[in-house]
């Protein structure tokens, strides 16, 4: 009965919460939610399609761009192969047909000519041929012949004589050599073999005109910011539209030695292809240039989404306006009814769901009005009966309170004894848990110290092995030092031999000088002897110079050996310090192992003592449990009697309280009902 009354007291409190929720809901009207729904249903599918399509399109575009760029560098490589093969073919043709023809071998004429006029005529013919190939072949900027003896025929660019002769020191294979000097000039070298004598007569050097290849690479149209250029086998940029230096990512790709490869690294597409002579055609395309069209499509989609969102707002506004007016009118009437006016009625229009809702609202107001009128009659009757019930229950409560006081004194003693026994039992349980925890902790520590001891023993073995290795290193270093000192002694003995050779050279020089003087005195007869004496003197001078060079070399060796001895000495000192440190670590680990053994012994004693305490605790707990059982049996009888009296007293108190509460509720309900206008 009390629960029903208390429930009726809370009738008006939920209405306050409903009002609060209603006020919050009005901040976002049905019209707004409908418009938002239209916008979401229209825009979300487009956004999802845009994200999926742009992702797929970007991936496809990247793969397609990689394939197209790879094919482009392959085609550019074909152009490069044609460019280099054309130069090689023309040079070989020139050497075989024009310069080294078996019927008119100009090079052989020039080499074998004894008359200077014939030699000059052959030289002029060779120069004309060199000028002719330069004029005919657009990819050759100049041509010259470098002979084995350093003689240079023809010219290329603005090379000095020393630079021209330097070509004779290069090693050229039978397939020729592509060479790049320090001035960024490119040359093609091919060995010249005399068709008549079969001897090598030097190299044909052709200066390469890179303008044609440069134009081909520059005119390749790719994306904005793209570069296409050629590099040699050392990854040095030759021509084309290129950056100042190659990036680290590109150098890493080129180091793979693959013939053709394309890869996107650091938001840049790199593609290259290797030509027949080892040069590479490289293309660099920024990833942003590849995906620029995707960004344009995304912007277009976002614009389309914005337009559709605006249209959705207009459609949502027009659709929602048609039925929100009836809802607003109904809300006003409900607000009036919420304030207590039960005389309101809503005019129902149309034949849709809103018409049915208005009719239901009107019927609900009529039913509530009848309920309020009936409630008023019930309230008056209940107030009269509640006063009589409250008076009778107060008298019954006083009688049960006297009975409960007497029984309470009897049970108090038994209750205290039971509580003491229970407290003792709890204390023993806590003691048991503590003892068990101590055993567990000591066992864990015991196991951990075993593992730590094994690890330290392994570390001690490793340090001992390191100590032995260190001793071997010191011994080997001493042997190296002894060998270096022995080498130093040998260089000093060689110095003595060089001094002896210097003395012999001086004496030979004096003898040659005396022989020259005697030959001069002899006149015509001694001229031949004078020539011999002069040669002997020159030989003595050369011998002296050679010994000087050897002495400089020996001094350098002596300095290096001295430095090596110093380094070995420093190494020995470092090895000894390391040996001392290793020995200290070895002693420390041994001391740790000894202490861990002592800890193991002490932990074993603690574990045995904890087991003894556990047994004593079990005996004590059994005795306390028997005492508790006896005390509880004594207290249970008095508690049953006390419980019955308390239960009767509580029932009467509740009944009295319910009577008072009923009067209060009825007063409150009467005031609430008076609030309604019927």
Overall mean pLDDT score?
Answer: 74
Estimate nothing, just give the exact number of structural domains.
2
Strand content: 5-15%
Question: What count of helical segments does DSSP give?
Answer: 12
Computed Rg: 57 Å
The termini sit apart by 29 Å
Order of helices and strands: HHHHHEEHEEEHEEHEEEHHHH
* Sheet with the most strands, sense and barrel status: 5 strands, antiparallel
Unreliable runs, pLDDT <50, ≥5 residues?
1-26
- For the record, the CATH class of the largest domain is Mainly Alpha
Q: Could you explain the architecture of this structure?
A:
75% of the residues lie in helices and 9% in strands. The chain is an alpha+beta fold. The protein folds into 2 domains: 60-290, 2-Layer Sandwich (Beta-Lactamase); 371-674, Methyl-accepting chemotaxis protein (Helix Hairpins, Orthogonal Bundle). The strands form 2 sheets. It has a 5-stranded antiparallel β-sheet with strand order 2-1-5-4-3. Strands 7-6-10-9-8 form a 5-stranded antiparallel β-sheet, with helices on both faces. Strand 6 (227-231) and strand 7 (237-241) form a beta hairpin. The longest helix has 170 residues, at 353-522.
């Amino acid at each position: 009965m009390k629960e029903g009354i208390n429930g009726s007291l809370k009738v008006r409190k939920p209405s306050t919460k409903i009002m609060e929720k209603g006020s919050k809901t009005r901040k976002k009207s049905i019209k707004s939610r409908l418009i938002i729904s239209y916008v979401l249903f229209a825009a979300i599918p487009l956004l999802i399609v845009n994200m999926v399509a742009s992702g797929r399109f970007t991936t496809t575009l990247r793969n397609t761009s990689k394939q197209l760029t790879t094919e482009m560098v392959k085609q550019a490589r074909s152009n490069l192969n044609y460019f280099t093969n054309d130069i090689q073919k023309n040079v070989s043709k020139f050497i075989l047909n024009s310069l080294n023809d078996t019927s008119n071998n100009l090079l052989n004429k020039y080499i074998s000519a004894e008359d200077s006029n014939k030699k000059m005529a052959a030289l002029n013919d060779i120069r004309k041929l060199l000028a002719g190939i330069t004029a005919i072949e657009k990819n050759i900027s100049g041509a010259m012949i470098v002979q084995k003896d350093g003689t240079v025929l023809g010219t290329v660019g603005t090379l000095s004589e020393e630079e021209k002769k330097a070509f004779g020191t290069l090693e050229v294979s039978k397939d020729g050599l592509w060479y790049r000097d320090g001035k960024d000039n490119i040359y093609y070298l091919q060995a010249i073999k005399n068709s008549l004598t079969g001897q090598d007569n030097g190299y044909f050097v052709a200066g390469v005109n890179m303008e044609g290849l440069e134009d081909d690479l520059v005119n390749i149209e790719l994306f904005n910011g793209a570069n296409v250029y050629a590099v040699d086998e050392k990854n040095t940029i030759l021509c084309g539209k290129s950056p100042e230096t190659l990036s680290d990512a590109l150098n890493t790709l080129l180091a793979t030695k693959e013939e053709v490869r394309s890869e996107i690294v650091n938001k840049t597409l790199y593609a290259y292809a290797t030509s027949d002579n080892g040069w590479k055609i490289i293309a660099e395309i920024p990833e942003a240039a590849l995906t620029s069209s995707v960004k344009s499509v995304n912007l277009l989609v976002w614009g389309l989404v914005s337009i559709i969102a605006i249209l959705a707002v207009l459609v949502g506004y027009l659709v929602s306006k048609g039925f929100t007016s009836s809802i607003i009118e109904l809300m006003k009437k409900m607000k009036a009814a919420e304030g207590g006016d039960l005389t309101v009625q809503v005019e129902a229009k149309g034949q849709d769901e809103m018409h049915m809702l208005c009719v239901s609202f009107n019927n609900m107001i009529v039913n509530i009005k009848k309920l309020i009128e009936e409630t008023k009659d019930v309230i008056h009757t209940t107030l009269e009966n509640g006063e009589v019930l409250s008076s009778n229950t107060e008298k019954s409560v006083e009688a049960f309170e006297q009975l409960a006081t007497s029984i309470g004194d009897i049970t108090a003693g038994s209750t205290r004894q039971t509580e003491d026994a229970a407290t003792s039992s709890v204390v023993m349980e806590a003691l048991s848990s503590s003892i068990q925890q101590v055993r567990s902790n000591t066992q864990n520590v015991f196991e951990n110290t075993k593992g730590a001891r094994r690890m330290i023993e392994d570390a001690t073995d490793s340090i001992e092995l390191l100590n032995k290795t260190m001793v071997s290193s010191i011994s080997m270093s001493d042997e190296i030092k002894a060998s270096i000192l022995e080498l130093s002694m040998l260089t000093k003995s060689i110095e003595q031999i060089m001094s002896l050779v210097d003395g012999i050279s001086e004496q030979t020089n004096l003898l040659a000088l005396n022989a020259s003087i005697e030959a001069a005195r002899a006149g015509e007869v001694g001229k031949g002897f004078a020539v011999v004496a002069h040669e002997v003197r020159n030989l003595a001078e050369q011998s002296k110079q050679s010994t000087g060079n050897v002495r400089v070399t020996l001094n350098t060796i002596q300095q290096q050996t001295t430095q090596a001895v110093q380094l070995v000495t420093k190494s020995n000192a470092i090895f000894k310090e390391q040996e001392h440190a290793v020995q200290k670590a070895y002693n420390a680990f041994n001391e740790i192992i000894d202490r861990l053994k002592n800890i193991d012994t002490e932990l074993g004693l603690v574990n045995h003592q904890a087991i003894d305490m556990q047994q004593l605790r079990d005996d004590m707990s059994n005795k306390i449990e028997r005492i508790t059982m006896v005390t509880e049996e004594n207290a249970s009888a008095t508690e049953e009697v006390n419980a019955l009296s308390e239960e009767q007293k509580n029932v009467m108190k509740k009944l009295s309280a319910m009577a008072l509460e009923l009067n209060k509720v009825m007063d409150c309900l009467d005031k609430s009902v008076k609030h309604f206008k019927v």
